[in-house]
Amino acid sequence: MATTDITHDSLARIIAANRRTDVVMASIGILVLMVAGTLLGAVFIDLLASGWERLVNPDFYTNFPSRRPAQAGIISAVVGTSLVMLVTAVIAVPLGVAAGLYLEEYAAKNWLTDLIEINVSNLAGVPSIIYGLLALGLFVYGFGTGETILTAGLTLALLILPVIIVATREAVRSIPQDLREAAYGLGADKWQTVRLYVLPAARPGILTGVIVGLARAIGEAAPVITIGALTFIAFLPPAPLQIESPFINFDWLTSPFTVMPIQMFNWVSRPQAEFHINAAATGVVLMVMTLAMNALAIYIRLRLRRLQR
Amino acid sequence: MTSITTSADRDSGMPLYGGADARFLRRRALWNRVASYLLFLAAAASVLVTVGIVYVLIRDSLPFFAKVSLLEFLTDTQWTPVFENARFGVMTLVSATLTVAGIALAVAIPAGLGLAIYLSEYARPTVREAVKPLLELLEGVPTVVYGFFALLFVTPLLQTFIPGLSGFNLLAPGLVMGIMILPYTASVSEDAMRAVPMGLREAGYALGYSRFRVAAKVVIPAALSGITAAFILGMSRAVGETMVVAIAAGQNPNFGFNPLEGASTITAYIVQMAMGDLPHDSIAYHSVFAAGLALFVITLSFNLVGFFLRRRFREVY
Amino acid sequence: MQRQLNTLMNEQFDDIPAPLGEASPATELRAEVRNLDFWYGDTQALKGVNLRVADRKVTAMIGPSGCGKSTLLRCFNRMHDLYPGNSYGGEIRLFPEDRNLIEMDPGLVRLRIGMVFQKPNPFPKSIFENVAAGLRVRGINAKKPLDERVEQALQGAALWDEVKDRLQESAYGLSGGQQQRLCIARALAPQPDILLLDEPTSALDPIATAKIEDLLTKLHKSVTVIIVTHNMQQAARISNYTAYMHMGKLVEYGVTDDLFTAPREQMTSDYITGRFG
What is d(CA C171, CA C121) in angstroms, rounded to the nearest whole number? Predict the structure, then answer.
């Protein structure tokens, strides 16, 4: 039987062919990347171009929503978003960090830990609108917290809880065992080791997760719509700080509100094209905020990685 | 030079434990205890969230299922909750949901896989380091913005190629959603590929395989369960995504799989009903929770399959 | 009271037979290992170890890698308790109060027994905070005692002169040898009963090693030191007593000079002459 001789020529052909597939594969990857990058740019430029006339008008940032598109502004949405985020952070950060610490540092390997882990991973995949239904059925009608800033903050806190738990776990896991042994070797007990050494070392990683989580919460509209966030809010909630004693006022927690993604959704859903301009302008503000937060998180992580090397 | 003394000092009455007094140690032990309980409670609270979700969905959809049989719910092809003789065939909403998710996956699977192969097998580490943040930025764009983009940019653009495309349609949100879930599917599958041990690749190269052959014959088969998980989890995201379809897909509950027409998905229906003033005890109110329950069951099963595939994959390597 | 107890105990010690012939120290006892077994899960790593640790002396543990010397060392401060599945059998009695530290709370044991690890592992904090760490863990937070004891510990670790002007700088700015001396200072600051050293110079260059050895020979005048090393010359240079371990068992234990010049066991002799290990 004739065997194929391996000649210099046939090898060269194979190598050339391999190189061609390599080039094709790399091009596919780069192409996808370019398309993705271009789209990100396109989304932003489209919004910027469509919303420009409102963006450059200072009234847009200081006015309340209005029936007349040319006078409508986002002040109530900006204030609403800020206050809702405050509630979200105050609830989600301690709860998420504590749960992450428990799973990484304390949990024994047993069915209960398994259950909690499956649960957290599943919660991360539950559609955000389902959290909205939870809030509607449990908070608004069950606990009677109504359609308020408190309800929205609580709902979004639950939504980003898995993000913070996972980030905390990863940050804590990346801390070398050396550091723990050093602490225990000095006589620290578990809580001292965690509080004085593990947690401070994990802080940048946790911070990254918190920022990414809050950025996500800022952009979320669906779960806030279901709790019936009104979209025409021509007033501001009571200020959290006041001049008279006791200086801090919690009335704002029970105030009706709107947030930026809802305001944008509301405007984009109107048939009149004039409102779409407002929607685009709101979208720019929203994108700048969330992208800036995500960029900050990426920056912290990169700096952290450089420090660890 | 002052010298460190221990045992000698001990004999002359130096306190034990390097100067920690008993009261401090008792307080420390108490805090240690309390902290471990509190941390456990926080972790357990995450389970309560799931319990709460299941409880609310079931409780508030029970009155619905008291009026509408499960059979009708699953087989009827009409969804007209506010009509005089209301009909509740959830498959109407499911068909639109699956159409959009299918289009999204048709974009995200090839693009995500190509990108993952490129990043894991071809790209230099510096490129990879630069690309991952870009993907994270894409993931960070608010979905309502993507919805705006789908309705007011992609749809008009597509209409110049496809004259029959209606203003609300499933194609544009599907395509946009594909881009939306691309970063997620790409990074999860890339993680899976990178977890394949170098030794396996080296075995491939030692046989004279080209880089592409190593990727196709060694890495992808080895990482298959991880890659599958990536796309199942991506599918789950597409099914549960709300704002893009609520804005761009329209609100007509049409049974069918035509991407050129608008149709209401499960999530879009929930948003639509939630925006109106729902009487608390109406069947329309409860139908929202029934739709939510259906959505939860679908995404939960995807998530669990994805979770166990990923976990099995991690155990292998 | 304390002193009384001590003498009382000493009388008792004379009745306890030395684990391996006459090798055991005639000085005061600081700790005694009795029939110690240790398991990593199902694998037995220590088999019936007996060892008497003399007060304010340096005890070295040598042997081929995997012989259990580090495992034994980590029993002294119950480091193994940090990981699931490990178990002990037997006793390590701590004197003068004669308690079995295997049955004590591991946290309390570690408050009395300090440890220095193979690789320098300072905390990502300032030099001062590293040395103060053990004190803070014990609830000592007032500035004056902290300042005093940090200086004392740094001097004890022969590091004070090198770092006194940059106590607030990060510990990561120090060289490897300085970091290890910092870790020794950190362990000394709370004035431990026993200081455990797990191959403390294996990650260091010869000059840094020499500095640490020099430090250890001075240290033992005031603190009981147990050191694991696989550098036999190091054991010969700095220790008063040496234990030779093999396959989880203590083969021979005696005064360092005797063990190296006239080993009683063939296995010890083979090891120290370099026939294996």
Answer: 10
